[in-house]
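Running this now, will post back.
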Amino acid sequence: MDSNNAIAWLTLATLITSIIFNILTWSDQSSQREMRDRLNFPRIAIKETNFFIFRSVSFDDFHNRDWGFIQSVIQEPDEISFNPNNAPIKNMIVAFDSSTGKYVENTWSISIPEIKSELTRRNIFRESGYRFDKMYKPIVTIQNTGQLPCIVDSIEIKNFQLDPKNYNNSSDYKIVKVPHEHFTLDPGQVFSTARISFNIPLNAPLPIFDFDYEIYFSSLNGKNPGSRKVHIKWDGDFGIRNND
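Update: finished.
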């Protein structure tokens, strides 16, 4: 083989080696970008659903207290094992002015005597001037299961329904939605959100209800948007459940 052919073959081999090297480098960089994207992509898990606990009282206090209405205890199995001697109070009494139908702001308690005392303290109590309802707040606990902090952009509560057999018109209950918040969740951080509450008549039993819970989130830089949607239902026998 003459020198010209040798140089040509050497040049071709160098070119082929360079092409292979560039392909491998591009492939490695692509894999690294894919791994980085997976690392940066936010992930939100729905951990549990329950009712907000307004107060816990001992069972002696529960049985001896003058509630002023028929009070009941709703306990999940883990609550019984965690604190077997206390009764979690998962409803709150709220007042409405009978003449206007408007909610009396900043006035609530867990019993009728207590809320009447508060209204008297504020010098606004009238014996026949108020209607009292029970308010419940379903809460959903979420967790950032990703590797980096993420932004929770908004939370939507949709299609809330109460058992139509007991609540067949809107005057039987009142739903209050809390404005959305924009907040950051660190990796592994757990956060409980109460984005809705509903009121029912004082001595009415807690009805079956269900709603859709949808959360929208993204990376800190606003990229990689994602969402999770679960259907949440209270059926009375098994507590609040979600289909996540």
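Residues 109 and 115 are 5 Å apart (CA to CA). More later if anyone needs it.
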